[in-house]
Amino acid sequence: MGALRAVALVTRRRELRYAASLGAFGRCGVVAMMGASGLWSMAGAQTQAAVDPVALVRSAVQQRLEEQKRHRPVRYVLRKTDGDHETTKAIIETKDGDVARLIAINGQSLTAQQENAEMGRLDMLARSPEMQERRRRSERKDEARINAVVGMLPDAELYKLEGTVACGSGQCCRLSYTPNPTFQPPDLEAEALRGFAGEVWIEETQRRLVRLDAHVVRDVNIGFGILGRLDKGGTIELQQEFEGDVQEWQPTVLKMNLNGKALMVKTVTIRITEEASDFEPVPPGIGYREAIAMLKKPSTSTER
Question: What is the mean pLDDT of residues 219-234?
Answer without folding.
Answer: 78
